[in-house]
Amino acid sequence: MSFLDYFKSKKNTRTASVAKERLQIIVAHERGQRDQPDYLPQLQQELLAVIRKYVQISDDMVQVEVDRTDSHSVLELNVTLPEH
Amino acid sequence: MGKTTTSASISTGLAKLGHKTVVIDFDVGLRNLDLIMNCERRVVYDFVNVIQGEASLNQALIKDKRVETLYILPASQTREKEALTKEGVEKVINELSERFDYIVCDSPAGIEHGALMALYYADEAIVVTNPEVSSVRDSDRILGILQSKSRRAEMGQDPVKEHLLLTRYNPDRVEKGEMLSVADVEEILAIPLLGVIPESQIVLNASNQGVPVILEEESDAGQAYEDAVARLLGEEREHRFMSSQKKGFFSRMFKGG
C-alpha cells in the first residue's frame, strides 16, 4: 500500500453509519409487511389480472395494504393508471 | 453467530449458581452443543430417541463433569428435522420441567422447523446478535416469529420476554466507526440489552477445548457472560467491556491483552 492509499482508505472505513441507515430502512419495511395478512400478495395478483383485461399496467401499479386500528381495519387499494 | 457458545455458557452459569439446569440441542442433523460442552464421546441416546420412545430421558441426559447441577440433552445427527414434533417436544419439556429449574433451548440458525420448535414453548428468549447487518436483520425476523408463532402468542398469553445479547463486539472498531455500536443495535431492534460479549481469542480457545467460555473466569468474555446470567436472574449489573481499553506502550509492543 502506498503512502497515498493510506489516506484514501481511511475515508471508506467509517461504514457503521451506512449500515445503521440501511438496517433502519429494511427493518421498518419488513416489520410493515409482517403485520399484513397472508392473502395480500394473491389479492394483488388477482386484482392486477382483472385490471389488465381493460388497461395495461405493470406489477407495481397496484398497491394493496391493510391498516389496522383497534376498532376496524381498512383495506387500502391504490391503482395507478398509465398516462395517455 | 454464537448461539451454541451462548447456550453453553448461560446454562453453565445458571448451574454454577446452584440452579438445576438442562440444555437441549435443537439442531437436529448438525449437533454441536456436545462438542462445545466436551461430552461428544458420551452421547448414546439423543433428543429424538426420547421423543420417539426409544430411550428414556434418564438414558439420554448427559451429566456435566464440571458443574454439579448441569445436564445436556444432545440432538440427533441422523434423523430428519421433522422428527421434532410439537407434541413430542412438549412431552419432553414437561417432563424436564418437573426436575429442572431452567431449560435452555439451543436453537439452530434460520427460521425453519428446528428453530420454530426451539422457541415455541419459550417463556424467555435470548436473541444472540453480532454487530453486523445480516445478523441484525435476521434477529428482527426471529423477533417477529417469537411475537406471532410462539405458544404464548398463539394462546394470547403474555408475550415471550425478549433479551438482546450482542456477541463478537469490538469496541475499538466501533470507536473508529467501522462497526455498529451497542446503541445502534438496541435502537434498531428495540429490545432490552442482556449483555455484550467482547470479541476475544478466549472464545475460540475455549471452544477448541470444549470449555464453556463462562468457566474462563479471568477473561473478559467469561465475565461478560457471568454478568449476563446475573441480569437474566434479575440482578442489576453495570455493562462492562463496551469501550476500548487504551493499551500502554509495552502491551502494544508485545501485542498483549
UniProtKB/TrEMBL annotation, chain A:
Keywords: Cell cycle, Cell division. Gene3D superfamilies: Cell division topological specificity factor MinE (3.30.1070.10). GO terms for molecular function: identical protein binding. Pfam families: MinE. The keyword Cell cycle applies. One of its GO terms (biological process) is cell division. Belongs to the MinE family. HAMAP family: MinE. Prevents the cell division inhibition by proteins MinC and MinD at internal division sites while permitting inhibition at polar sites. This ensures cell division at the proper site by restricting the formation of a division septum at the midpoint of the long axis of the cell. This is Cell division topological specificity factor. It comes from Marinobacter confluentis.
